[in-house]
Amino acid sequence: MRKKRANGVTFWLFLAPVIFAFIMVIVIPFLLGVYYSFTTWSSSPGAGGGIRFVGLVNYTDSFKSPAFAYSFLITIAYTIVNMAVINVVAFALALLVTTRLKLRNIYRAGFFIPNLIGGLILGYIWQFIFNNGVPALGAALDLKSWVNPANLILASNVKALGAIVAAGSWQYAGYIMMIYVAAIENVPAELHEAAQIDGASAFRRLMVITVPMASQAFTITIFLTLVQSFKQFDVNYSLTGGGPSTLFAGRPIFGTELLALNIYDTAFLSNNLAMGQARAVIFFVVLAAIALAQVSINKRREIEL
Asked: pTM for the full model?
């Protein structure tokens, strides 16, 4: 009994620094942020008569804002497309590097390396490619449409959003690929051998054996890509900066300003920290609800498979 109690004390002593750090860095700032979202908090509170409690004003004003509504809509669209692209590319790469391909370990490392590049740097690299590399290639190939400034990828809202998907997928697909690789390599080889003897094609073995056996990996990867896509900020900030501009509900707004960037611009560029914090709370609640629903649905599908 004493030994069990001593082990419990030791466990909590080792865990205490982590709990303390979590409370100080995550819990307390989050609760303070929720409180400040109901006030007139700004970076210069003295100019507005100090911090005053205003209730749900910041939340109602946020829902009335065309820019916030537009950012919410394009973030959902971006998330759906980005999740699909990353998972399809990552799974295809995983299938490639789990075959008897020569130098497959080198390919694994090569596909993973983009994940080590910071999002801000990555955005600037792809901005140079889209603004300078593509026109230069067009000039070399005598493709005038590629050289025309009006046809630049980052000059169109839809194309620019696609550029964010391309840059983000190039960065994150290698990381998701490694999760799929671990799942595929854990599928018993005997199942594939038996199915092959029975005459099952490679595609049939993939759909009937590999995909069901790797169902847990799909739950993890879909969750990770969902969260990563929904809170995309760094690539969005450095690649497009939210531009180009567009019209929504009769007002000019940023055409590729995803939700995280909208919160940043509201808080720091518009100097409205309280409203930015209110939007961050909305962002947290929606993301948490979607992520929990996704995990619950995928867990049920795992049981069915």
From this structure: 0.88
